[in-house]
Each structure stands twice: as C-alpha cells, then as structure tokens.
Amino acid sequence: MQVLVVANPANTNALILKEFAPSIPEKNITCLTRLDHNRALGQISERLSVPVCDVKNVIIWGNHSSSQYPDVNHATVATPSGDKPVRELVLNAEFITTVQQRGAAIIKARKLSSALSAASSACDHIRDWVLGTTEGTWVSMGVYSDGSYNVPAGLIYSFPVTCQNGEWKIVQGLPIDEFSRKKLDLTAEELSEEKALAYSCLN
C-alpha cells in the first residue's frame, strides 16, 4: 500500500497516520508538495518565457504552508547552448513569496480553491512514485525525515527525491548556503510546533 496525504495540514496529517497506522511502512506514507513544486516550475517558465518542460530540479523544502522554501539553487533551464542554472537568470525574494502564497492568491482571485491543480499534482506525484523519475531529474515529496540535511528526524518534511521501482530516495549531498539553511530550519520549526500541537490534542 502506498499512501499520499493531500488534506491540510498535509505534513502533520501524514505524520499522524504514520504513528497510528504502524502496519503501513513509513516509506509508504507521503504528503503532497508536488503542487508547490509545479507552481515553482510554472513561475520560472513564465518569467523566462520557456516551456515548463525545459525547467527542472527546483526543490520545495519543508512544510506545505507559507513557510515552505522554494529553492532554485540547483534548478536548470534548457537553452540552445545547454542547461543554464536558473539562479543566474531568476531569483529574488518576490519569487519565493509568490510560490509560498500562490494557493491563497488563487483562492482570492477565483473565489474557489485550487482543487483541480492539486488533483493534477497528485497524479504527477503518484506517476513518478510508481513509474520512476526521469534520470537526472528530481521532484519534491513530503516524506519521513531520516535526519538528512540536518532536518530533525521524526517529521514529514518535503525533500528532493528520485523514484525507482516504486520507492523514493532523498537526493543527498546538495550544498546548502546560509540563506537556505535558515529557510530549512524555519519550516522545520513550524512542523515541530504542528507536531507538538497535534500530539497534545491526541493525547
């Protein structure tokens, strides 16, 4: 059984499921941050006037909330002269905020939720989990932290992952600069607070 949690707070709901359904292996429980991942790809595509399929390897770190960190430090865009780092072409505080607040902006503009976008992203998530990611490309998934990137173990946290044979694996060894470190820690703190609150209610 493979489980994708979509309902908010998705990360903490997935963690509660992991704790109270011990028969399901933790590797089989994930939450949806692909929606945020796809939004980041879309924002880069729009700003650079390139097809979204030419952009790859953005990362959504942390919580599916406004504390998430959309990271383009390792993302690339295909150009006639080869792949170019996205950070040399587009990166500013406005980009990060736009991705963080995109869901709220859609609701405000349409007076409706972004449920269709979430459904499409859920399909992308399951497809890559089951069929595998393209070689050289990673995606973002909320998965059970093993302490990678100094993220506290015991949280469901969005990491860059690759998928093969129906299993996900956290991408290791990516350099994290000081700015990014603060962002990773901030969203981890929020998840720790959510976890404590949820457990206090359940106890």
TrEMBL record:
It holds the Pfam family Ldh_1_C. InterPro entries: Lactate/malate_DH_C, Lactate_DH/Glyco_Ohase_4_C, Malate_DH_AS, Malate_DH_type2. GO terms for biological process: malate metabolic process. GO terms for molecular function: malate dehydrogenase activity; oxidoreductase activity, acting on the CH-OH group of donors, NAD or NADP as acceptor. Keywords: Oxidoreductase. Residues 33-196 form the Lactate/malate dehydrogenase C-terminal domain. Coiled coil: none annotated. SUPFAM superfamilies: LDH C-terminal domain-like. Belongs to the LDH/MDH superfamily. MDH type 2 family. This is Lactate/malate dehydrogenase C-terminal domain-containing protein. It comes from Linum tenue.
